[in-house]
Predict the structure of Phosphohexomutase.
Amino acid sequence: MSAKIYPLQFNPILKDRIWGGEKLKTVLNKPIASSITGESWELSTVAGDVSVVSNGDLKGQLLTQLIEDNPNGILGTEVHEKFGTQFPLLFKYLDAREDLSIQVHPNDALAKERHNSFGKTEMWYVMQADPNSNIIVGFKEDSSQEEYLEHLNNNSLLSILDTVEVKKGHAYFLETGTVHAIGAGLLIAEIQQTSDITYRLYDFDRKDAQGNKRELHVDLALEAINYKKFDTRKPYLEEENQSNSIVNCPYFTTNFIPLTEKMKVSKTGNSFTVYMCIDGAFELEYDKTIYSYKQGDTVLIPAAMDYYIITGKASILEIYIS
């Protein structure tokens, strides 16, 4: 197995959504076949949606099998020790042609108790934003379960939620319990815990193609919501050819790399690394082989790759567990 360590890419897992569009194709060149593709799952071990390798000697193999065969080499020694053979993160690109539902995700304890799942701490990086695009992130002021329910029942929930105008390059960190929604006109890179647990609070009374409203989870959400006001925006530096910290939390670390020339990278073997190319293009040289990536590509660097060189002109998100 050790001879087959190299940068891994995976077939995108494409998801049609009532709010989806066509930017995953027109901007990121994903092979979508519908006009309502909302999500491209780039790297996943969610049951029923396990990523399949698309390049090199391991093409066609499941990510879960690679981890079982070589957990330290793929995940890293510390990640393997902490999570066993579970891949702890899920990576997506999202295209919101319309507003997403207002929703919330449970924390680890609640998700474990109710769903035998991880919670869903996540972050968003805005890759493209139409003019006047907004997101909803938490409450305008500290609230309470009683106030929240009153506004939900009176159809005035939006009046107490914090609506924020966003631009390309903005980054947001959403701890579990944060009431949130991605607004129309946004193309977003999302990094999150491996979980597909979402409680939908309000869906603007939309109906699907069959004329049905989507299920809401009002009761489940009550205990999951954090009713405090807090700041979700994450400013960051943009020093060229360096890893600039955006988020550093127990679940993942995300850095921003504005690549303009050559950058040498050394790793310890403690954790895998994922690169999401959010603009431009770059090359990675490892073991006398050059691998090429463009906007919209996601690549998993196995933990056993301890030294390599990246070069090009690109904006890259660098994610690992520390």
